[in-house]
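Q: What would this complex look like in 3D?
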Amino acid sequence: MMDEPDLQGVERELRAVGAPPTPPPALATAARAAALRETPEVVDIRRRQPLFHRLRRPVLAAAVIAACVIGALVIGVNGRGGIDTIRTVSMTGPSGAQGTIKFASAQGPSRQVALRVNDLPPAPAGRYYELWMADGSAQIALVAFNTGNNERAQATTALPSDVGWDRCWVTEESWGGGEPGTAPTVLDSQA
Amino acid sequence: MDLSSRSNEDLLELVARHRDGEAFEVLYRRYSRAVYGVVRRMLGDHARAEDVAQEAFTSVWRAAAGYRRERGPATGWLFAIARNAAADALRAKPVAELGEAHDPVDTGPLPEEAAESAERAFRVHVAVDSLPEREREVIELAYWEGLSQSEVAERLSLPLGTVKTRTRSALAKLGERMSDERVAG
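A: Here is my prediction, written as structure tokens for the whole assembly.
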């Protein structure tokens, strides 16, 4: 998770470059048609890349996920390493994975939320886990994480005080993003 | 086979080795706005921008085999394709047709500032287009349409807390992706 000054830098970049122009609708058809008329140039693709290059993307993803988890921990963990729990929600998964989420009493604008997961294998390369909560019809992505080789993970983060929770679940997301609602659920409080 | 979750590098390899039209379509969906944006920035000419963007994607199809993973992310290669297509168009433009926006009769390299500006915008636009839809829409409304977070919440019929959560999550992802994507010439 990035710190506040970095996020402000991103905001500045977004505002500075502005929205991209919308491509004319005909471009898609024209580009496809033009491309398919073309013949390929020299084809010389290596079947296997050196180890460093094959590992670069997963290592990058792992580093970012680690940063997210560390960020969440920094946000949420109190001095004793625990939280003032007012409710605990249990989650189970089809493969035997288990998880608990502890909600703390509200402290001003937010409340602490502690996640603990057991028996969940590390996400495959290029993927990660994400904790979700439903507040009515709204779905909130609360924290991204991954499990270690011991198939465990714990993270603490914050939830706005005015947001409730009807259901909690964990999905396995693709690092490159994906269509909403298509990520498989690996833990669910309603399972 | 669902290609939407495949990496750009994998998609380029599918185009190069198998002339995979679906992989090309996925690349087009991911990059069309950013590529068109680069061309528009550099040409400043609506009419020609469409033709040049089309030429850029044709080049992607034709030259996909020229991409080498070891030289960097596919995003950099795609930016270079778009930039070069725009540069070629500018060089080919007859002097008599140059408008006020392109008065310098310069058939050499493009001004460094223009290329830097295009690269910066490309990196941001690609990063935004890579976000999940639920996060992309809040970013676009807040930063490109100028809506407050409360207005975004109202527009999307979402709780304000959800908008804030999605915004922060999206900004963090954008920061990582924009710094990862070193766009090379």
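A: To summarize the key features: Residues 39-57, 68-81 of chain A have pLDDT under 50 and may be disordered. The helical segments of chain A are 4-17, 25-37, 51-76.
Q: Very helpful, thank you.
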